[in-house]
Amino acid sequence: MLEISNLALPLDAGLEGKQAEKLVRRAAARALNIPPNDITQIRLLKRSVDARKKHDVHFVATLGVELVGGAQAEAAAIEAAAHRKSATNVKAHRPYEPLQVPQVGDSPQAQNEPRPIVVGTGPAGLFCALYLARAGLRPLVVERGAAVDERMAAVDAFNAGEPLDPHTNIQYGEGGAGTFSDGKLTTNIKSPWAQHVLHLFVEAGAPEEILWQAKPHIGTDLLVDIVRNMRKQIEQAGGEVRFNTQLTALHFENGCLAQAEITRFAAQSETATEMIPASRLVLACGHSARDTFELVRDAGVHMEQKPFSVGVRIEHPQQLINRSQYGKAADHPALGAADYKLSMHLRPQKGQEQGRGVYTFCMCPGGEVVCAASEPEGVVVNGMSRFARDGQNANSALLVGVGPEDFDGEDPLAGIKLQREMERAAYRTAIAAGGEPYQAPAQTVGDFLAHRAGDQSKQVKPTYARGVAWCDLHECLPPFVARAMEQALPQLDRRLHGFADPQAVLTGVETRSSSPVRIVRGKNMQAQLAATSVSDCAQAETGPQVQTQVQTTPESPAASNTRPADAAAPEPETGLYPCGEGAGYAGGIMSAACDGLRVASALVESLRPE
Questions:
Q1: 8 Å CB contact between 119 and 257
Q2: What band does 189 get if pLDDT is binned at 50, 70 and 90?
Q3: Taking a C-beta distance cutoff of 8 angstroms, is the pair 27, 7 a contact?
Q4: Which terminal CB of the chain, N or C, has fewer other CB atoms within 10 Å?
Q5: Interacting residues of 152 by C-beta distance below 8 A, sequence separation 6+
Q6: Is the peptide bond before 379 cis (omega within 30 degrees of 0)?
């Protein structure tokens, strides 16, 4: 099969029907300089929208093409294309090679160890657990929230005004926070695991079009079924999944993981705690598992403060974004809802060495702003879209970068303190403005820039399910965040006309865009303890089994940013594998899933017989 890339196609080629097929065939034939009838089969491999020139919005595609005459004709076509000057590229197509998972369940080391534990069923945890199960390791997967159907009911109840469930909500439960998002499957990382993630999603029921879309997405309505199917695949391969079950303690012996305490939450606040043997545990707890971060720190695991971003959600009419991005082509049925991605770096202010970054994140075409709280008396917003992206509004996070210099103290969890302060301030601000509990503070862009608590927008109806309280967002945003947004909005409007429209709606606060901590891991994907040495772990296999749980103080290396003393020594085998977004190694569904596969592969490789 030939692969033709960078091929321009008219928008009508994106429609259904024979006429669209003819347009694609003719374009492929022109690129190869052959008659259309010489093409026997065409397969779409990749397609994106080129809207740089609003008078010429079109698709750019990569096609897989088979010719009459087979391999000989295709080789001739490649040779001929090499001698022509053309914007398109022609080469032999390299088909996808499915993921190969080594079988290690019967290896001597695996037989002598407890089965691995995976904490969390977000993208990192699910993909990691699936890999481990298919490797024959029968992982135990624990998730603090409920299974996806029960979780959907809990989220719907909270949206309707019921009390917050601190264990099952938009942050916690099967599928992780990504289940209630746009379901974007794009990433800025160049990972060899990315193609496997897409194919595993399709295997679990995602539409095949995610394999060829330049900006694939699934949507919350489809993700619900997909994560359920992935859980069933894990179970069918020998894994076990326990919901409403939380990791509540880690115990190390001589620097190596020995036991994990898990607690199951039942009805009427009943709990049951179990201590289980553990020598390998993948920590894929997500970016909102603050109590889990605390227990990891208190167990003596080396952690660091990490930069992250905070801000608000901004909503516009989707039609405004379509017109700004596609011009006169905005209503073409092959295009769908337009997206955008904006970023800029502000000039340094007085006392700053460098300016702050301001950018949009997790843009949700045709989506809604969601109630993403996970702690009492705190308001958090996020965004989500369904697969069709057919809502009236577009929304995106508008974020300002923050770093350790903005935190209060050296505790690796100091960023969480900043998040909590903003979330509780948002809750109080909405209440003070006459709102009900968990309503979100909101303000139009025009009123925000004018520093006035105005009325509701005349053009945009906020989509936040519990309702909003119109107020001045300056009352719940840190001054440096508000100032950065004020500077950035007019400048971003020059890049996307209408972005700073006075009637656009800002809803606060967005604090959970990424993890505020990093659990430091080595090249072996394992965490480090403040007092761990390689000899400790070696002794654990042969020496006395005296249980020691490392205790830390705020001044200890684990609580500060100080690295373990012997950084040049061989990496210790602690058995704790930080993974995904919560551990600080991903930012979104795709990168988290890739990290889950990467960590699982490292764990499996460590069990392969030499």
A1: no
A2: confident
A3: yes
A4: C
A5: 224
A6: no
Nearest to 340 by CA among 317, 322, 367, 319: 322
CA distance 113 to 128: 18
pLDDT in tens, 424-480: 999 999 999 999 999 999 999 999 999 998 889 999 999 999 999 999 999 999 999
Give Cα separations from 176 to 289, 362, 502, 546 (angstroms): 11, 15, 35, 37
Contact between residue 244 and residue 144 where contact means Cβ atoms under 8 Å apart: yes
The answer to whether 395 touches 383, Cβ cutoff 8 Å, is yes
Token code pair at residue 430: 């909405």
CA distance 400 to 534: 41
Whether the model clears a pTM of 0.90, i.e. scores above it, the answer is yes
Q: Quote the crossing angle between the two packed helices 123-134 and 194-203, to the nearest 10°.
A: 80
- At 382 the three-state DSSP class reads strand
User: Is residue 153 over pLDDT 80?
Assistant: yes
Closest CA to 298 of 516, 519, 551: 551
Contacts of 257 (CB under 8 A, 6+ apart): 250, 251, 278, 279, 280, 281, 574, 575, 576
H-run or E-run covering 456: none
N-terminal to C-terminal alpha carbon distance within the chain: 39
Mean pLDDT of the chain: 92
Strand-pairing partners, residue 8, are 60
pLDDT, residue 267, reads: 67
User: In the chain, count of helices (H) and strands (E)?
Assistant: 14, 23
Q: Residue 220, SS3?
A: helix
Place of tokens 């801000």: 311
Secondary structure (3-state) at 303:
strand
Place of tokens 């049925």: 333
Angle at 165 between CA 161 and CA 168, to 5 degrees: 120
pLDDT for residue 562 is more than 80: no
142 bridge partner residues: 119, 242
**Cα-based distances in Å from 578 to 158, 208, 306, 416:** 31, 31, 15, 18
Tell me how far apart the alpha carbons of residues 286 and 582 are, in angstroms, rounded to a whole number. Answer: 4
User: Closest Cα partner for 502 from 491, 489, 483?
Assistant: 489
Main-chain dihedrals φ then ψ at residue 432, nearest 5 degrees: -65, -25
CA dist 398 and 107 (Å) reads 50
Of 563, 580, 581, give the one whose Cα is nearest residue 572. Answer: 563
* pLDDT one-digit tens code per residue, 511-524: 999 999 999 999 99
Cα–Cα nearest to 125, from 191, 172, 76: 172
Torsion sign, CA atoms 597, 602, 603, 607: positive
Helix (H) or strand (E) holding 274: strand 271-277
Contact predicate 306/515, CB 8 Å: yes
